[in-house]
Amino acid sequence: MLIPSSFNLVTASLRLCAFTRQGIISGLERTVPIDFNQDGVVDWNAEVIQTDAAINPGNSGGALVNIAGQVIGINSMKIAQQEIKGIGFSIPINLVEPIIEDLELYGKVKRPYMGVQLQDISEISAYHQEQTLKLPKDVKEGVLITKVVPNSPASEKRKPFIPLIFMRTKSKHLLCYT
């Protein structure tokens, strides 16, 4: 798909009859930080298609259709700031299709489950990183497995429980430290 590209948005805003709106796709594979609980910490980065569509209550969940009539996304959100108008986002259809398949097959979305509780090592004091966990000084990012949930996939694989740290250093992307 070329950028910019035309699209049609199928919508039923404000409980009005369904209608279409034409617009421009201005970006593919955009990443939008999402803070679910408004604590200032990004909980997830959404991969989206950026449009100039007016996404309003009632038309999120509608189809984003290219000029060939193919559904290419599902309208999901907009930037809600007074000084910003006409920036909408849609979830790409390739990310939506597995969810639809799960809903059709199981009646719910099946998510991966390991059965562990994690703690970001940046939340652990420097003293405990060095003295308790004995982390190398060049470790700046990582997570500590603090608990394995009983009868979970993780509990079946690792007995007895030994804390693990998954981290990134400047020279290596992923290490497993016990």
TrEMBL record:
Gene Ontology terms, MF aspect: serine-type endopeptidase activity
Top-level lineage group: Bacteria
InterPro entries: Chloro_Bact_Ser_Proteases, PDZ_sf, Peptidase_S1_PA, Peptidase_S1_PA_chymotrypsin, Peptidase_S1C, Trypsin_dom
Keywords associated with the record: Hydrolase, Protease, Serine protease
The keyword Protease is assigned to this record: yes
Pfam families: Trypsin
Gene Ontology BP terms: proteolysis
Thylakoid recorded as keyword: no
Domain spans labelled Peptidase S1: 44-99
Family according to the record: Belongs to the peptidase S1C family.
Protein's name according to its UniProt entry: Trypsin-like serine protease
Organism for this UniProt entry: Ureibacillus terrenus
